[in-house]
Amino acid sequence: MIGKTLPDGSIVEYTYDRQGNLLSVNDGHRPLTFAYDQ
To answer: Is residue 22 situated within a structural domain?
Structure first.
């Protein structure tokens, strides 16, 4: 997991799979998940 702190102090977390594909983004309000066709 990789995180980024925004100027307002909130944290956005990014999760990637082993191939480097973005799996999820969580800003604490609206978590998003992504799926990829194989």
So the answer is: yes
Q: Distance between CA 3 and CA 24 in Å, rounded? A: 11
pLDDT one digit per residue (tens) for the chain, 38 residues: 799 999 999 999 999 999 999 999 999 999 999 999 87
| Rounded Cα distance, 23 and 32, in Å | 8
**Domain membership flag for residue 38:** no
pTM (predicted TM-score): 0.79
Scored b (16 or more CB within 10 A) or e, 6-37 reads eeeeeeeeeeeeeeeeeeeebeeeeeeeeeee
